[in-house]
Structures are given as C-alpha cells and as structure tokens.
Write a structure and sequence with these properties.
The chain has helices at 16-19, 30-44, 49-61, 68-80, 84-91, 107-118, 124-136, 145-156, 159-171, 178-190, 203-214, 220-232, 236-248, 255-268, 271-283, 290-302, 306-315, 321-333, 337-349, 356-368, 372-386, 392-404, 408-416, 424-437, 440-453, 458-470, 474-486, 517-533, 549-557, 560-571, 588-600, and strands at 2-6, 20-24, 495-500, 503-508, 578-582, 605-608, 613-617, 620-621. The chain is built from 31 helices and eight strands. Helix 18 packs parallel to helix 20. It has 627 residues and is an alpha+beta fold.
Length: 627
C-alpha cells in the first residue's frame, strides 16, 4: 500500500522531506508502526513552527490523532517553540473530527503539557488547569506529575492552592518521594497566603520546614531548597544556621547551596562569614559558575568590601549583565557614583546591552552621589538609545534623585508629567525630602493625601507624625499615633546588627537584653562625654517627642547604632574597623555622632543603612553628608 501526502503549503516554505512525502507501508498493522516512527522522527528534527504545523497535518492524514506517543512528542516539540498553546488547542479542540479521544491521553502527555506551562511566564495557571483536566479525564498522576504541578503553584505564590496540591500528593501516595518532597519545600517557600488565608507571610516557610523535617535530608538538593527558601524570605540567620547543620550532617553543598548562603550572608552584612564562605568554596572545589561568582560579588559589595567585589569582577572570564549590574549597584551603595557611571559606560562600550535593571543601578548611583545632570542624561537615553521604556522604578529613581538634591518642586513637576500613575513609594520620597529640606507645609499636605488613599499602610502615619513633630504640633502628632494604635499598627523599630566572634548580635533602642548591657551603657556615656569635648552637638530635633532637651539627648544616646558601636569598642582591639548594619535610614544625629566617634577613638566605622553605606574615618563620612 502506498500513501502519498502533499501539504497545502508552498514548496519554498516547506522542507524538501515534507513537500512530497511518500511512505511505503506494508498491508499489515506494521504500517501504523512505520507511520508512528516517521512522525516521531520528523518531530525530533523539527526546527520551525511552520514545519510543526505541517507535521500536524500529517498526523491527521495518517490517522495518528489518538496515538499517545505521537501526541506527547508533538506537545514536547511545541514547547520548544513556545507554542504550547498551539498544542493544547489541537489536543483539546471542540471539533470531534480533529481532536484526539480522551482515552488516548495518559500521564506522560499531561506531564509534558504541565511542565511546559510551568516553565512559561504568565501561563503557570494554565498548567494547574491542565492538572485539573487530567483528574477529570480519569488519568492517574504519577511521581513525575507533581514536581511540575508544584512548580506551577510556586510560580503563582498561592499558599491555599499549594496546600490543596499537597493533599493530592498524600492521596496518591507520593509524599515520600524525594524529588516531590524537594519541590514541595521550594513551593511552600515561594508561597504567600492566598485569598482567605490572612496576611501572615511566614506561614508558607513554616510548612516548608515541616516537610523538610520529615524528609530524609540525604542530598544537597533538599538542603538547598530549604536554605534558599529561608534566604528568599528574609530569614537569613535561619538560612546560615541550617547551612551549619548541613555541614554537621556531612552533606556536601553544591553551587546552588552556596549561592543561597551567600545571599543570606549579604542580607546580614556578615563580612567575616562571607570571607569564610569564599575560602570554603575554594577548599571544597565547588565549581565557580557565573551565578556563583555573581553571588560572591554581590555579597562582598553588600557586606562593605566593594573593592574586593570589583577585583572578583575583573577576574571573571565571562561576565553577564548581572555581573556588571552587581558591581554598578555595589559602587552606588558605597557612594562611589563616578566610578559606577564610568563602569556603566565601559559596559556599553564593550557591547553589553544594558537592561532595565542596570539602568536602575546607574540611576541609583547618580542619586546617591548627587549627579543630577548625569541622571537626567541616562534617563533620557533609555528609550532614545536603547529602546527601553522606563518603568515606575526608573521614574522613582528620578524623583528620588531630584528630591535628595533639593529640587523638591522640580520633582513634583516631574511626577505630574509622568505617563504612569505615581505609586506610594514615589510620594514618600517627596515627603521625606520635604521633611529634610524644611518644606513642611507641602509635606503635610502630601502626607494627608497619601493617608487618605492608603489608610492601611503604617509608614504613611509615621511620615505625617514626623512632619507634625518637626512643626512642634504635638497634639496633632499624638492624634496620628493614636490612630495607628486604634488600627493595630506599629512603627518598625530601629535595630542594628553587628558581627563579632562568628555571631550576629542585634540591638534596638534602649536595649538591655545583652549580657554586657551595663558595660555597654557605661561606654555610651563615655562616648558622649568624649565626642562633646571634640565639638559634637546633639541634634535634638531628631527626637520627635514633646520632652525637654536633656531627656532628648538621653533618648539619642540610646539609639541602636550607638549601642552597637559601644559594644564593638568594648570587644575589639583598638584601631580595628567596626562594621554595623542598620535596618532603617541612619538618623542625622547618629550620623553626626559617628563622625566624631571615628575621630576620637581612631576607628574606621562602616555603617550600612536601608539606603546605602557610610564609611566614617577621621571625622568624615564617605557620603559627604548627602544621604
């Protein structure tokens, strides 16, 4: 029997092997096997979407519409061209003459489809819909199904949905499969609470911890999933602690583990730990991929040693846009704006196309170094030179740049002409600038408007409260604080961390929880006396309370930064650098006091606050009092 097939396409757009396909098939059932193998071979060598549509026609003509093996291969090939929607429209067509029968679907086909959607941006929900279809068709999932389904849940970050899939995993008996367990840990770590679950963001991580505790923990993948989850959710101390447990258990970390630990280390600002991790990577001969090198660069930059980060960058054989951006952002955080913009220009000259993230980096560099004209130039070049349409983050950088530089009115005009709706972060940048520049009436009016539009965000109340305190309108300030209390809102407390003797110590204002608190407060008193002799004058306007000047000075001395510095002076040899990490923006008084402390005690003091690094030395700060 001879079957001749001609496709309804022009020969110029069709491969010669498909233009006039002739199959010599025996008159037995073997012919279906030959047709099947022919289609599989064609799908395996398929290189274009046009060819795929032609093979689709061939599948219909050869009567292979209900062949599970061919359908699965067709779906897999579709996914390589980002055309999985084309495959599903064929497989689940309403036309009975061209759609396969439901009985021809098996777990392998559904797994292929779900995996493709799990890897496709904006299509993860489609993968879960297919999983529901799979169950509705009576196709029983296997152990390969759930890693794909759980990955789709992770992409959607819906805890309620993840819990439901977890229930199915238990129902079908795959909860003891190691690969499923690892993916489930990852899923829970990625999930916030879904609708109706409340707002407790830690819930997903805690569930991941329960799955982790019940798993065998025999390979690095399990540990990496949990450590990475802690790092992504900001539980950096727990990530580092778990890494230490991993070492005790004798499980050798891999590159992915080390990237996660370095991320946690960067968040903590733990430079000594970061140095040890770099040595550990060398000792264990863990391959230094580009991703691992980038993580090392990011860690050193965020832990205060940007020169080391720069050296690592220069030693890399192959740099990605992430590598360049990490160093640019690192230099920006340290106030080395001129070097950051020079590196950005070097990147462009070397033919590395900047992306929207690298532009955020260079605009931040301009912002922290008061390079207003440079910032305007880079912002204008985004769309004109590189075809990058500015996002809200880029507009936010420009507003921050103008506001910090004192051009509050220009920043307002810029906001009014933006083609996108300004978000609350942009308005808060302007309010903060109004507070710093004495534009208090303007700051008050914007704060009130912001509070009306976003009444559930505690920072809006804090901003307005601070404005009233600066205006010395204590009664109105008290009313704002009372409104916060009525709504159950609390101001984020200032805290400062310091790494000492392989431990991270954290202080809050007025902290007396440390074993050395008596000696710490004695040192704080000594610091106050010594820096006053050197010319320090307390900035009592920073204390937003209706109390007398003496009490205000006392409140300033109890700020967490000063407690951490006093602790370091007590416990480190004279002349050694002090490094601390503040969770909020450093206040004006602490900034002034730290300059004097660095001179009086002959210490270099490196402070990382929420916005940037401050390097204090000999009574001066690297920021030039611009932060």
């Amino acid at each position: 029997m001879i079957i001749k097939t001609k496709f309804p396409f022009s020969p110029s757009s069709t491969p010669s092997t498909l233009t006039n396909l002739t199959l010599q098939l025996p008159p037995t059932t073997t012919r279906s096997r030959v047709a099947e193998q022919t289609c599989l071979t064609l799908l395996n060598s398929c290189t274009t979407l046009t060819t795929l549509t032609q093979i689709h026609t061939l599948i219909l003509k050869l009567g292979l519409i209900n062949n599970p093996l061919v359908l699965t291969k067709f779906a897999a090939t579709s996914s390589t061209f980002n055309a999985i929607h084309y495959a599903t429209s064929f497989l689940f067509s309403d036309d009975p003459t061209t759609a396969p029968r439901a009985s021809s679907f098996d777990a392998f086909l559904f797994n292929t489809l779900i995996r493709a959607f799990a890897h496709t941006p904006q299509s993860k929900s489609s993968g879960l819909q297919l999983y529901r279809t799979m169950l509705r068709y009576g196709v029983v999932p296997n152990k390969f199904t759930y890693p794909f389904v759980l990955k789709a849940c992770a992409g959607l970050s819906d805890l309620r949905l993840g819990k439901a899939v977890h229930g199915s995993v238990v129902k079908f008996g795959f909860d003891d499969d190691l690969h499923v367990q690892n993916t489930m840990i990852h899923m829970y770590c990625c999930c916030c609470c879904g609708s109706g679950e409340g707002k407790e963001e830690g819930e997903g991580v805690e569930l991941a911890g329960k799955v982790f505790d019940e798993s065998p923990k025999t390979d690095s993948v399990t540990w990496s999933a949990m450590i990475g989850g802690y790092a992504r959710r900001g539980h950096s101390s727990r990530a580092v602690g778990l890494f230490r447990e991993m070492q005790v258990m004798g499980v050798c970390p891999d590159e992915i583990t080390m990237v996660s630990v370095l991320t946690a280390c960067a968040d903590l600002g733990a430079l000594e730990l970061g140095k040890w991790l770099e040595s550990y990577i060398e000792w264990k001969k863990i391959p230094k991929s580009v991703e691992l090198c980038n993580a090392l660069i990011d860690m050193f930059a965020k832990c205060g040693d940007v020169d080391k980060a720069m050296n690592l960058f220069r030693q890399m054989d192959s740099c990605t846009i992430v590598s360049w951006t990490s160093v640019i952002v690192g230099l920006a955080m340290h106030g080395r704006g001129s070097e950051a913009v020079s590196l950005f220009d070097e990147m462009v000259e070397q033919g590395v196309e900047p992306d929207d993230v690298s532009f955020i980096g260079v605009l931040s560099a301009c912002c922290h170094s008061k390079l207003v004209d440079k910032g305007r130039s880079y912002f204008n070049s985004m769309e004109g030179n590189f075809g990058i349409v500015p996002k809200i983050e880029h507009y936010g950088c420009m507003v921050d740049l103008l506001s910090r530089a004192g051009f509050v009115k220009e920043a307002l005009d810029f906001v009014r002409t933006m083609p996108v709706e300004p978000n609350q972060i942009i308005w808060r940048s302007i309010i903060t600038a109004c507070h710093a520049r004495g534009e208090l009436k303007l700051g008050e009016s914007i704060s009130k408007e912001l509070l009306r539009n976003e009444p559930t965000h505690e920072s809006n109340y804090v901003l307005l409260s601070n404005i009233y305190a600066k205006l010395r309108r204590w009664e109105q300030k008290t009313k704002v604080r009372e409104m916060m209390d009525m709504r159950g809102m609390k101001k984020v407390p200032g805290s400062t961390m310091i790494e000492l003797n392989n431990e991270m110590c954290e202080f809050v204002a007025g902290d007396k929880s440390h074993d050395q608190y008596k000696q710490i407060y004695e040192m704080v008193d000594e610091m106050g006396r010594e820096i006053k002799r050197a010319g320090y004058v307390p900035t009592t306007s920073q204390v937003l309370l209706d109390i007398d000047e003496e009490d205000k000075e006392d409140a300033l001395y109890k700020h967490s930064e000063k407690l951490a510095i006093a602790f370091a002076l007590l416990n480190t040899p004279p002349g050694t650098p002090i490094r601390i990490v503040k969770n909020l923006r450093v206040c004006e008084d602490c900034h002034s006091a730290t300059k004097f402390i660095s001179k009086v005690y002959n210490r270099e003091i490196v402070v990382r606050d929420r916005n940037r690094f401050h390097h204090f030395k000999n009574g001066l700060c690297s920021c030039g009092d611009f932060w």
